[in-house]
Design a protein that fits this description.
Radius of gyration: 13 Å
Number of strands: 2
Structural class: mainly alpha
Helix content: 40-55%
Order of helices and strands: EHHHHHE
Strand order of the largest sheet: 1-2
Distance between the termini: 22 Å
Largest sheet: 2 strands, antiparallel
Strand content: 5-15%
Number of helices: 5
Length: about 70
């Protein structure tokens, strides 16, 4: 999943730690989301969107279908 979280965070003058505190999660969670290693659950996605005054859809974009692993 691709996301605009790092750009939004910087544009709002927040550190990873500051965003983590505002969202009620660990800094490691924010790092993992920003690097695309972790997709937030719906509740966290809504919290992040609310912090930035935006929508979930504008923050997170699913990977294209051809990027997903194919299973026989």
């Amino acid at each position: 999943m691709q996301n605009t979280l790092p750009d939004l965070r910087r544009a709002h003058g927040l550190s990873q730690d500051g965003l983590a505190r505002a969202a009620g999660v660990s800094r490691q969670t924010i790092i993992s989301i920003e690097k695309g290693r972790y997709a937030p659950n719906l509740a966290l996605a809504f919290t992040l969107a609310q912090i930035f005054g935006t929508t979930i859809e504008s923050m997170f974009t699913p990977d294209p279908p051809d990027a997903a692993p194919h299973h026989p």
